[in-house]
Structures are given as structure tokens and as C-alpha cells.
Inverse folding.
């Protein structure tokens, strides 16, 4: 793999931080993948709206091998005027970026914006000032036609600036072929697919445990993830299989718990709080299948994490899942919003025999496809695009 002499500067709209530790963790894994091949410096500007950490500005730095992370928290109180608040946050980020840039003694060889709004708007200005190429990688679901809220409803200034930034970038990537196609339609320029990374030091076949009659769903429980469909389908399964269990991992949602109670399956559901990956992998490993029944997605990190443990997946038949799941070895693709078909897949998963050998093979194939080394190498080719 050809090397680039110097370091890459990443400007990230999302990134793990003290306020939201799991936000943008897939971007952090991308940065770690690239840092296998070249030094990476990350700048992330985190809006501390409630002043949890600071009422002004707070900067923290972290170092891991060739990866340096600078997370800057800033406080801009809300005015309740959406457009004005967005403008004030952007201007604050621009000022903070310029301050960090002023302290640079050695310029990077490239700038990489992660999640275009607002990172690409910042990267474009800094790249123009330093006369450097910049790149954009995107994961945001709001670009998809079926998403709500939708990027098409963003204010005209943001959409105009976004198109300018996209067209001026050296190259653009999306997390899935489906997202890449949509970005190409919106921007009028080629977009390549670079998938997310699975952390095989956490998600691997060594996590194999004695499976129980459990299915697991991990998400934010937002409408996009359709947790109500999962509960209704599971209620059908639970009425026929009294030993079946469903682990729902996510934020506290009394309304969903009430729905489970009204469906008569609440006693067979375990409601678990969001948890760090080392704890989550143990819960996935003891399950017969993971369920991700989303209305729309740009990728689906939890899918490859389950597969890397050797656990098959039940997913809606949306385009990104068609890219990730190879049936029947890796799981089931179910017609979206089809409760009967989802319930049938759940029952098949609970009855499906599995062996350590089958799980290990599934884990090995997934780990190889989404490894740090492979994805990092893809970014290095991306940087050297003409």
C-alpha cells in the first residue's frame, strides 16, 4: 500500500464525547483504521447546549498510537429560532477551527470531513486557505428519500453550501452503495462506497456462549427502527413459544413497555439500558439472532457486529441490508412492515440449530470483510484518487 508523507486532518460533525459517548463511534473506528497506515488528527466540535461541561469552551485531547483526537466543547444557548441557532453554532465552530489551525506548526497533507454538515463547510474553508485537497465521507440518513426529517427540507443556505462543498471535494464516499447512489443524485458527482469497521477485538467468535432462546434488538428505539413492529411480531411468537425471550437494548421507553404489556408478552421481554461494546457483545453472543427491522438505513453497524460474533441477523429487506446479508447463512431478509413474515423469521431463528463451527465461519467471513486493515486500505486508495 503506497504511503502518504504527512498526516491527515479529520474534521468530524459527530464523534464520541463525554456528553454522548457512543455518538459517531463508527467514525472513530474509521479513524483508527486509517491510522494503521498514516498519522491522523481528529478535530470534533461538540455543542454543549445545556452547559453540562462548560459555559464557554473546553478542549480535551487523547492519543492512541498514530491517532490524535481533539474534542472541543462549546456552549451556545438556544434562542428557539432554529435558523439563527444553526448559524450561531456554525460561526462558533468556524471560529474554534481557526483557533486550532493557528496553533498548527506542520500542515496536514489532506483534510477529511466526516458528515458534511457542518464538517465539510469547515473543511472547504480551511482547505482553500491552506491550498490542500479535502475529502468528504457521509453516513447521514437524512439524505435518503424515505427519511424523516429529510435533507430536502433543510434551509436553502445549508443546501447551497453543501452542494458547493461536495462539488469542490477531491473525492466523496458513503457508507453503503445505496447512500452513495443517493449522494451522487443530490450532488451530481461520483461517490464511492467505503463500509464501516467491525472491531474484531471485541466482536469475535471467542465470545461464543451457550445460546438461550433469546432474540435481541439494539437501537435508539426511534421510529426509523420500528420497535413497535418488533414487539407485535414477538407477541405472536411468545404466544406459541413460552420459553422465547426478547432483549430490547436502548433508552428507557415506558410507552414501548406498555405496548409489550398490552400485547401480553411483557414477561418474556428484557428491557436493557444502552451499554458499552464489551457488555453488549456478551448479550448478542447469547442470542439466537439479532433483529434490525428498520424502515431505512445508510448502513447498520450492529448487523456486522452480530455477524462477527457468529450470530445471524433478521433484517428488513431495505437496500443496505441487501448489501450486508447473504442468505441463508447470515440470516433472514423480511419484507418491510410485514409482521407475519417477521414473526415467522423469529420462529425460524429460535428453532435453527447452530454449532460453534458454523458460528466461527460466519464470524471469520465478516471480520475479514469489515476489518480495520481492509477498510483502512480502502481509505488510502480513496485519498490517492485522481
Amino acid at each position: 500500500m503506497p504511503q502518504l508523507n504527512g498526516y491527515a486532518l479529520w474534521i468530524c460533525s459527530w464523534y464520541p464525547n463525554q456528553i454522548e459517548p457512543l455518538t459517531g463511534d463508527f467514525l472513530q473506528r474509521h479513524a483508527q483504521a486509517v491510522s494503521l497506515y498514516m498519522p491522523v488528527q481528529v478535530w470534533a466540535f461538540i455543542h454543549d447546549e445545556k452547559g453540562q461541561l462548560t459555559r464557554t469552551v473546553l478542549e480535551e485531547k487523547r492519543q492512541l498510537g498514530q491517532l490524535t483526537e481533539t474534542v472541543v466543547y462549546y456552549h451556545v444557548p438556544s434562542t428557539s429560532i432554529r435558523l439563527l441557532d444553526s448559524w450561531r453554532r456554525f460561526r462558533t465552530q468556524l471560529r474554534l477551527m481557526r483557533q486550532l489551525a493557528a496553533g498548527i506548526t506542520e500542515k496536514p497533507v489532506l483534510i477529511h470531513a466526516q458528515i458534511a454538515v457542518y464538517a465539510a463547510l469547515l473543511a472547504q474553508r480551511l482547505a482553500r486557505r491552506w491550498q490542500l485537497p479535502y475529502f468528504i465521507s457521509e453516513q447521514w440518513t437524512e439524505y435518503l428519500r424515505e427519511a424523516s426529517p429529510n435533507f430536502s427540507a433543510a434551509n436553502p443556505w445549508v443546501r447551497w453550501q453543501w452542494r458547493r462543498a461536495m462539488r469542490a471535494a477531491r473525492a466523496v464516499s458513503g457508507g453503503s452503495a445505496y447512500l452513495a447512489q443517493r449522494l451522487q443524485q443530490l450532488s451530481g458527482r461520483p461517490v464511492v462506497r467505503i463500509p464501516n469497521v467491525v472491531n474484531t477485538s471485541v466482536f469475535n467468535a471467542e465470545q461464543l456462549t451457550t445460546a438461550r432462546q433469546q432474540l435481541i434488538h439494539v437501537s435508539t428505539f426511534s421510529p426509523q427502527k420500528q420497535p413497535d413492529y418488533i414487539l407485535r411480531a414477538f407477541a405472536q411468537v411468545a404466544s406459541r413459544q413460552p420459553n422465547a425471550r426478547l432483549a430490547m437494548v436502548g433508552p428507557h421507553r415506558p410507552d414501548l413497555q406498555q405496548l409489550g404489556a398490552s400485547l401480553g408478552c411483557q414477561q418474556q421481554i428484557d428491557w436493557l439500558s444502552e451499554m458499552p461494546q464489551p457488555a453488549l457483545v456478551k448479550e448478542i453472543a447469547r442470542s439466537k439472532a439479532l433483529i434490525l427491522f428498520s424502515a431505512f438505513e445508510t448502513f447498520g453497524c450492529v448487523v456486522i457486529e452480530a455477524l462477527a460474533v457468529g450470530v445471524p441477523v433478521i433484517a428488513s429487506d431495505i437496500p443496505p441490508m441487501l448489501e450486508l446479508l447473504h442468505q441463508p447463512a447470515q440470516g433472514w431478509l423480511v419484507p418491510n412492515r410485514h409482521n407475519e413474515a417477521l414473526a415467522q423469521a423469529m420462529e425460524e431463528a429460535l428453532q435453527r440449530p447452530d454449532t460453534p463451527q458454523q458460528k466461527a465461519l460466519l464470524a471469520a467471513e465478516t471480520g475479514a470483510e469489515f476489518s480495520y486493515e481492509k477498510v483502512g486500505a480502502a481509505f488510502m486508495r480513496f485519498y490517492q484518487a485522481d
Notes: The first helix runs from residue 25 to 34. The chain has two domains: 8-197+371-383, 205-368.
